[in-house]
UniProtKB/TrEMBL annotation:
Protein name: Adenylosuccinate lyase
Role noted for this protein: Catalyzes two reactions in de novo purine nucleotide biosynthesis. Catalyzes the breakdown of 5-aminoimidazole- (N-succinylocarboxamide) ribotide (SAICAR or 2-[5-amino-1-(5-phospho-beta-D-ribosyl)imidazole-4-carboxamido]succinate) to 5-aminoimidazole-4-carboxamide ribotide (AICAR or 5-amino-1-(5-phospho-beta-D-ribosyl)imidazole-4-carboxamide) and fumarate, and of adenylosuccinate (ADS or N(6)-(1,2-dicarboxyethyl)-AMP) to adenosine monophosphate (AMP) and fumarate.
Keyword line: Lyase, Purine biosynthesis
Single GO molecular function: N6-(1,2-dicarboxyethyl)AMP AMP-lyase (fumarate-forming) activity
GO BP: any one term: IMP biosynthetic process
Taxonomic superkingdom: Bacteria
Statement: the UniProt record of this protein carries the keyword Lyase: yes
């Protein structure tokens, strides 16, 4: 029999043809507002804007205008200030109509960097309309992309893009999160907390000290990321300056290349194949992935503290925690962060491992791979935002932390046996086998305050030591936790 239900199903509207276009992925859809700052640095449009910027600066450099010296290419025009300003306005004004124009050129060239070259040459041809008929820019058209291979432009563009994304978007958000966490560590530096090693009760600490450990770890990675090198090269099709020396043999091309790369604010790489080797990218992405994993550790620890009741979540007015259980306030910020950190780290790991390899002098795997730098940063930035918002909605329940400590007096066994060891070394008799004696008293079962104090009274400790140990509670046995935060975190 025919399936009458299938036959009666109306044809669906095509979402693929909807206007405005519907995003395929969550970063450009659901989470667009959070990761939008990265679009200025890591989108396809940002790549083309940086390509235009690099090509324009290279043209200016070849005329000698950057160094104030003679033209690198004999016969190149001497540019006026107005002409330099006109050239630099090309990338500065690169917007929606220019993006569409460049895409139209690329449909003809079927080559993205060649399309950029033609785009700039159009602007040079139009310069007389803006600067007057006496401008030399139309005659400078063949300085565009002079002696360059596409990768001379691409590697510099990506270095500028990634540096911009790190310093302009990702690093400020990551630093703000680390500072937020450090402030929480200071605020709660004296709040006693039962530690859990292997999930079992252990020597007490303070909540602030545990948050301080994570803040300290995050900041260490951030210092590495802040000190990252961004390398660039401009040396031709196989890294030999072959076209350069064939065209202008009298120029000191390595010096010109170095001065240009450093003019862009990058570190010059003198020895490459057709591509810049991308090792700096692998180093940076490994550091960011490590930051992600420390942050993942924070998210899972905070989630656990929430489940134990150490942290209370402050409800967002009007928000729903569960579709069926109205009492719930789910730790969704930290769970969302976990997932996004895992995706980001997986992408960063792939970038780091793939980009360092290129067959012989060039293959094209890096081209597609580098187009995923944006999503790698996007998922990390989204996670940072979620953790920051999650932390801002937490309150410490000191009644819960005190209650947990009061149910675990056995953790003082470490303090007692250590005091016995010290007393024995100092000559007090009867201090033999302290670990074994405390193990027999405490292992595998709970004891209370009176049990422990009665045991201490039988040990024969010196009076001052006995008084000090008898006065300890799980809530006061926190060592130097508070001062460690105040002394070393910042």
């Amino acid at each position: 029999m025919p399936d009458s239900s299938a036959a009666s199903t109306p044809e669906r509207v095509s979402l693929a043809s909807a206007e405005p276009a519907i995003a395929l992925g969550p970063l450009d859809g659901r989470y667009r507002s959070t990761i939008a700052p990265l679009v200025d640095y890591l989108s396809e449009a940002a790549l083309n804007r940086e390509r235009i910027h690099v090509e324009v600066e290279w043209l200016i450099a070849l005329t000698g205008a950057i160094t104030g010296g003679e033209p690198v290419v004999p016969g190149a025009p001497t540019l006026t200030e107005d002409e330099i300003a006109y050239l630099r306005a090309i990338p500065a004004t690169f917007g929606a109509s220019e993006i569409a124009e460049l895409a139209e050129i690329e449909r003809e060239t079927v080559h993205d960097v060649k399309a950029v070259e033609y785009f700039i040459k159009r602007r040079l041809a139009a310069a007389p309309e803006h600067l007057g008929e006496g401008t030399s820019l139309p005659g400078a058209a063949e300085l565009v992309h002079f002696a360059c291979t596409s990768e001379d432009i691409n590697n510099l563009s990506y270095a500028l893009m990634v540096r911009g994304a790190v310093t302009g978007a990702w690093l400020p958000a990551a630093n703000a999160l680390a500072d937020q966490l450090a402030a929480m560590a200071h605020e709660h530096a004296a709040v006693p907390l039962l530690a859990l090693t292997h999930g079992q009760p252990a020597t007490p600490t303070t909540l602030g000290k545990e948050l301080g450990v994570l803040a300290h770890r995050l900041r260490r990675q951030l210092r590495r990321i802040d000190a990252a090198e961004y390398l660039g090269k401009l040396n031709g099709a196989t890294g030999t300056f072959g076209a350069h020396t064939a065209a202008v043999p009298g120029a000191n091309w390595p010096a010109v290349s170095r001065a240009f790369v450093e003019h862009l604010g990058l570190t010059w790489n003198p020895l490459t194949t057709q591509i810049e080797s991308h090792d700096w990218q692998a180093e940076l992405y490994s550091d960011i992935a490590r930051f992600n994993r420390v942050l993942h550790n924070l998210a899972t620890d905070v989630w656990t503290y929430i489940s134990l009741g150490v942290f209370k979540q402050i409800p967002v007015p009007g928000a729903t925690g569960s579709s069926t259980m109205p009492h719930k306030v789910n730790p969704i910020r930290f769970e969302n962060a976990e997932a996004n950190l895992e995706i980001s780290s997986a992408l960063l790991d792939t970038l780091a491992s793939t980009l360092v390899t290129s067959r012989l002098q060039r293959d094209l795997t890096d081209s597609t791979t580098q187009r995923n730098i944006g999503p790698a940063f996007g998922h990390s930035l989204l996670a940072i935002d979620n953790v920051a918002k999650g932390l801002s909605r937490l309150a410490v329940d000191t009644d819960v932390t005190a209650g947990i400590l009061d149910r675990n007096w056995e953790v003082l066994g470490e303090a007692i046996q250590s005091a016995m060891r010290a007393a024995g070394i100092a000559g007090t008799p009867g201090m033999e086998n302290p670990y074994e004696r405390l193990k027999e008293l405490t292992r595998g079962h709970r004891i209370g305050a009176e049990d422990l104090r009665a045991f201490v009274a039988t040990l024969g400790l010196p009076a001052d030591v006995e008084a000090r140990i008898a006065a300890l509670t799980p809530g006061t046995y926190v060592g130097l936790a508070e001062s460690l935060v105040k002394t070393y975190l910042d």
